[in-house]
Amino acid sequence: VGMLPQIKTLRAGVDIIVATPGRLLDHVSQRTVDLSGIEILVLDEADRMLDMGFINDIRKILALLPKQKQSLLFSATFSDEIRGLATGLLKNPASVEVARRNAPAEAVAQSVYHVDRDRKKELLIQLIDDHGWHQVLVFTRTKHGADALSERLGKAGIKSAALHGNKSQGQRQRALEDFKRLKVNVLVATDIAARGIDIDELPHVVNYELPNVPEDYVHRIGRTGRAGSSGQATSLVCVDEHKLLRDIERLLKKDIEKRVVAGFEPDPRIKAEPIQKPRTGRSAPRGNAPAGQQRRPQRPTTGAKPGPGGNPRRGTSHHSGARHH
User: Fold this and answer.
1) What is the C-alpha to C-alpha distance for residues 172 and 165, in angstroms, rounded to an integer?
2) How far apart are CA 252 and CA 101, in angstroms?
3) 290 belongs to a structural domain
4) From residue 233, how far is each of 129, 144, 245, 257 by CA, in Å?
5) Do 241 and 223 share a structural domain?
6) Which of 70-74, 92-96, 99-103, 150-154 shows the lowest mean pLDDT across its residues?
7) Is residue 43 part of a domain?
8) Rounded to the nearest 5°, which phi and psi values hold at 21?
9) Residue closest to 192 by CA, chosen among 205, 211, 175
10) Rounded to whole angstroms, how far apart are CA atoms 305 and 319?
11) Residue (of 240, 231, 184, 193) closest to 212 by Cα position
12) Of 129-138, 191-200, 266-275, where does mean pLDDT reach its minimum?
């Protein structure tokens, strides 16, 4: 979605704005939206926004909002970073916690394959070929990693597709449909893009890289073994990820079966290296208009101000999320 249709909608007046942090700041810089009248702020999927590098954008938005407002924060996980954000954002908040699901379905058979980091692609290809896996959801930490792995699988003759935030909506939808119809046998996805994937009787989930947050492991493998069907969750673990594996097993309160494939024995001389968290930045300078659009100031639109008697002016909501990360 381009800026111009959004500007047109904002000019008409809206009560609710649903936006990605970057696009919202684009509108602020062009004076097409005014946040001084906001009464309610909702940060949804706060853990994902932090993982994607949006913390600075979020802080800029918070600085533009009035002090007197209601704030709500939703997060699937509560890391130290999330708690720090909540402390700075919320005042004496009420905490509502849905019962955690820290255990996968019993029908999911879990296994760990120890392998050197540079041989994971080879091992994954061999596992797919040896076991005849026909439908596999593979998780990577980064978008670049998803693309690289999908390309390598394709060169090995395995039909695969990558699914991540840099893909267009059409590309993501096409990849999902091809995966469901078995036109694609392997779907390589990031945690962000995989949210909402719902495939009945998905037989295999592979953690090509372990997640940084233990709860995400449960979320990942929970996509198999549904509705009474059996499923397999396989993790390829290198020396860098041993601590992540221990954290996952501590969460599950059980040891996961360990395996080593002949010819892929880890080299004990290889030392662990720090795992870099994915960093996603905005490439375009703040305030730059899209091609063909003039940069003249637009009439600002205030958001979420109630009309007389406290009732909203109109039942309109607007989604401003053209930039998917």
Assistant:
1) 9
2) 10
3) no
4) 16, 23, 14, 11
5) yes
6) 99-103
7) yes
8) -55, -45
9) 211
10) 17
11) 240
12) 191-200
For CA atoms 213, 165, 159, 174, the dihedral sign is positive
Q: Are residues 245 and 313 in the same domain?
A: no
Quick one: residue 228, left, alpha or beta (phi over 0 = left, psi -120 to 50 = alpha)? left
The runs of H, that is alpha helices, within the chain are 3-12, 21-29, 46-51, 55-64, 80-89, 120-131, 143-155, 169-180, 191-194, 214-221, 242-252
The number of residues making up the chain comes to 325
Neighbours of 37 (CB within 10 A): 14
Rounded distance between C-alpha atoms, residue 280 and residue 294, angstroms:
27
φ/ψ of 274, rounded to 5, equals: -60, 140
Number of domains in the chain: 2
Which is it for the CA torsion 52, 57, 61, 67, positive or negative? Answer: positive
Tell me the C-alpha distance between 275 and 305, whole Å. 45
Please state, in angstroms and rounded to a whole number, the distance separating the CA atoms of residues 105 and 260: 25
Residues 6+ apart with CB under 8 A from 29: 286, 287
Q: What pLDDT, on a 0 to 100 scale, did the predictor assign at position 158? A: 98
pLDDT at residue 286 greater than cutoff 60: no
Domain span at 82: 3-98+300-320
Tokens of 22: 């970057």
**pLDDT of the residue at 215:** 87
